[in-house]
Amino acid sequence: MTFSIVEANMTGFMHSPFNSSIIKILNDLSNEKVELFCSEEHLSALNFDKDEVLFSPIKVLNPGVKRIKKFFIEYKQSKEIIKKSKTDFIVFLSCFPNVQFFLTKWLKKYKNKKVIFFTHGEAEGLELSGKWKVWSYPFWISACSKIKQPENLYRIVLGSSIKKHIDKYFKINVFSIEHPIGDCIGLVNNHELNSGFVFGFVGKCTLNKGGDVFIKTAQKCDDFDSIFRIVGENTIKYDSIPENLDVMSNGKMMTHEAYENGIKSLDYCCFPFPSDTYKFTASGALLDAIRFAKPVIYIKNDYFDSVFEFAGDIGFRCETEEDFINTIKSLAENQENGRYKKQSENMKSLQKMFLPENVKNQLECIFNQI
Length: 370
Known about the structure:
The chain is of the alpha/beta class. It has helices spanning 16-29, 40-45, 67-84, 97-106, 137-145, 160-166, 211-220, 256-264, 284-291, 302-308, 321-333, 337-350, 356-369, and strands at residues 3-7, 34-38, 53-57, 89-94, 115-118, 153-157, 174-176, 198-202, 227-234, 245-250, 268-271, 296-299, 315-318.
């Protein structure tokens, strides 16, 4: 099998870890060098041997900038690549929904071309209510779901639970793989016997991700030795910072090195996300917790539940915000060191599910089917 790989939507460092992994996997599956179409800025951010691909530079504008111009550039280039490609599969690593919509209609004329869209966070727009402007993700992804899908167009989503939800909107040709993660870290266990646990909110700390619940939890545990840490950009304003709360970055993005060192310093990664989130997209923060083999404490949601279904004891699944707070308060008061060690070992075992070799097998099965 042979592949043309297209990234006409993202540029620079955007999506670079995911794209690097998929390009390496497809190159391994291919009978010859893959064709890669992306910006030179994106190529320089990708992590693989550049000599292993046939690179063709294309112009890519940043998402959110000059939207109309960006649409025409992305759409025109995407059509030209599809028309000229002689490979078995044309794989779009990402694609803005308005481009997806018009390519879907246009592809009916090119039934001999097999086109794959990797579908990411834009799918969240399928269940967002409201009157959306014509340039928004929700407007166009919703429009995509209401037109007939050609049989030569396929979608790949990043998780079985996501496929379950998206199947309600796209009735044919939807497949799922795990989100590949590379450079998995061995057990980094800083926890010392009889010392308090270090609990961390991982990722951008916002109200819609339950950041206020995490801060409230720290306030309720100020009588114990445990430390609470926000590892990511904090956007929540508060009157006073609890003494046991370490905010690593207030209002600005952290450096990659500082972010990774922050995760290494944690005992538990905490995710007080509302239960109705992550129906259509993978959680990068959760994947980082798995990459560093850190046990988790989370409020139940479909994506997290599906990831941990066969993982054994990897932390604590909470039913409600109150349960989340009480679980952490109990751990802060009574450290369970033996159980914590086992949870860490189970997280280390879980990493295998997301390794590129496993994802490669999943993708090979999909391409053999289509």
